[in-house]
Amino acid sequence: MTANLLDYDLDGLAVFCDRLGEKRYRAVQLFRWIHQKGASNFDEMSDLAKSLREKLKISAQIKAPNLISQHISSDGTIKWLFDVGGGDAVETVFIPEEDRGTLCLSSQAGCAMGCRFCSTGHQGFSRNLKTGEIIAQLWFAEHFLRKHLQRDERIISNVVMMGMGEPLQNYSELVPALRAMLDDHGYGLSRRRVTVSTSGVVPMMDRLAQDCPVALAVSLHAPNDALRDDLVPLNKKYSLAELLNACNRYLAFAPRDFITFEYCMLQDVNDQPEHAQQLVSLVRHYSSGGVWCKFNLIPFNPFPASGLTRSVPERIQAFAKILSDAGIVTTIRKTRGDDIDAACGQLAGEVKDRTRVGERIARQRTFVLKPVSVISK
Ligand code: SF4
């Protein structure tokens, strides 16, 4: 079977090269060609021996999922939709800002966690992405942007695993992808600039701390177990107490001295002053004196069938003030890319229709690739 070289971190590629009778430094060269230069054709790899290139042509490929569509927002946000087969599609989002370029990656097609406010959660779970399908989103985006912005240096400075799926439910495929992001021969991102976001898979948080301790974000969304059981069903398995204790343990290994808590602002559900006060008490209880978290308040992106609405701006501001006054660093996420769709997972949900997959994907392809000159950076 032909191996997809995007499925390997550097150690994995070294094992693959060893099987071909090649030394580790050949794996390093190959890894650099793939990830730093964006090569997908072995003939481009001019410093590899011709005999090795011929062996690779027989036994390997560099294959990313096919692009279905590209949507570019007036604010420069780009959303790509990739076909991962079987009628499934996943989304990748690039968010350009003054001082950084952030890429949001998906880890699963669909998601089994069923969070009430999440469009992906409403679609259910299809399958885990392979390592190659995760890293291919970065590989594609980085080299696409470099080419179209005509820049040689790195454009994506931050990666967040906050797209479709619960990354810690796809742990064995996630970790090699993270390692490729961090590797100096790959994307060379620091651990502070790679963030895994979890809804609270406690045992895997402990494993990540050991195996690849990148920055951690936790989808909190509620200040008490009763409400969180309803909004994030995983809470019934791992309660807030277990989750916050796991955050404390993670901090000993984390590249930053805080955990980011994400909190989706839902009108009349979790956005009252008493909820903010409960959060302050919760954080104080578990931080034993020092505040070790930041809050990111996320205005809800409404989608059909959620039955939920976005908190009004005044309520979000008042909520943020209660947290800030208690000494907790709190930001309100700017809504980005509102004109290219709303909620994460919504575009992919439009594609996913197992009865008429081909037709749907074909229709999505009809609005592909607007001129890239409108990308602002
Ligand atoms: S918020 Fe994240 S974990 Fe929850 S359903 Fe959506 S993708 Fe899954």
Description:
- The protein is of the alpha/beta class and 377 residues long.
- The protein folds into two domains: 3-61, DNA polymerase, domain 1 (Orthogonal Bundle); 66-374, Aldolase class I (TIM Barrel, Alpha-Beta Barrel), CATH 3.20.20.
- 37% of the residues lie in helices and 19% in strands.
- It has helices at residues 10-19, 24-36, 50-59, 119-123, 131-149, 171-182, 202-211, 225-231, 240-251, 273-287, 313-325, 346-351, 357-365, and strands spanning 3-4, 60-61, 66-72, 78-85, 88-97, 100-104, 108-110, 125-128, 158-161, 194-198, 215-219, 259-265, 293-299, 329-332.
- The strands form three sheets. Strands 3-4-5-6-9-10-11-12-13-14 form a ten-stranded mixed beta sheet, sandwiched between helices. A two-stranded parallel ribbon has the order 1-2.
- Strand 4 (78-85) and strand 5 form a beta hairpin.
- The structure holds iron/sulfur cluster.
- The site of iron/sulfur cluster has 12 residues, from helix 4.
- Residues 111, 113-115, 118, 120-121, 164-166, 199, 219 line the site of iron/sulfur cluster.
